[in-house]
Fold:
Amino acid sequence: MRRPELRVDTDRFRSNIRAVRDRIAQSALMIVLKDDAYGHGLRWAVEAAKEMRVEWYGAYDVRSGIETRRVLGDAGRVFAWATSTDDEIDEALRAHIDLGVGSAEYLARITEVAQRRGVRARIHLKIDTGLHRNGLLPAEWGRTIDDVRAGEAAGHLQLVGIWSHLAEASDGEDDDAQSLFLEAVRVAERSGTTPEALHLTASAASWWRAELRGSVSRIGAFCYGVRSADGPELAGVTPVAELTATVVDTVDGNAVVEIGAFDGIPSTLAGARVGTPAGARGLLRIDATTSVVEGWPEMRLGDSVWIFGAGEHGESSATTLAERIDTVGEEILTRLTARVRRVSTP
Ligand SMILES: *Cc1c(COP(=O)(O)O)cnc(C)c1O
Structure:
């Protein structure tokens, strides 16, 4: 019997990246790698993206930024936006990682570390456009830009980017956010050169709202084939990961498979459609370490069941499962525990 496996399909990942890049046209892709590449495995994702010459890597924190840099070598730009300790800033500068900066306090610390090391820190300044999640307020923006320019003149900083994050709650709010964003860019422009990386949009807005895209688009979900909850299917984008488990027992003609709530499958998913060698069947019950799936003719111990995936065996996608319990596909993927082995193909 095999342990449950999350199989990630590298070809599908590459196709998704191609589809996303075609769609976002001149905007450069920053592939977002947070939460261990949305549960798919950071190293695998970076290796595949590197082969495709993806230019930007959004690594969230410095630790995963450094792991990303190890795989990339000198290739690509790594962007880490979680506010970090001085030691982490130091490590990030040594690994040539761009830092996202959302407060004057963090800017001052980065400037100090860069000065001490005698290097120029590459920074992307974040304007708060309404989400109130770590960003400079419009009222402090001008003053902070002045500080950045002073840091540049002294040789400690380089303003590489300006960025923000959209709420994606309504088009109107996102339009207002873009106005604030563009005003912040104008303020920066008046004080010197325009930073090369202007980034505001994630998957959904990058895909559906061309007018909001900057020179860079930060995209996670769609590259992994995770569509938005309650959103439409996307041309050329398919789920990259499939979760499989084997039949270890039968009860009353139904299959007992070796995966359960302890592995990270929400027990509230009972009733969903899963894949079997005979096609779609109902997921009858999710227990602690096993689950029960409606049986099929000639069912055998050792048969595979697909809890979610790309639909090839009748299974639902992670997003379709998520919609049953009012959450997003990412939530299903990132809850899986380490007992679920990650396997990549080909
Ligand atoms: C998660 C995240 C993204 C990517 O969002 P997706 O919807 O998965 O594309 C982009 N930017 C930031 C700051 C994020 O936290």
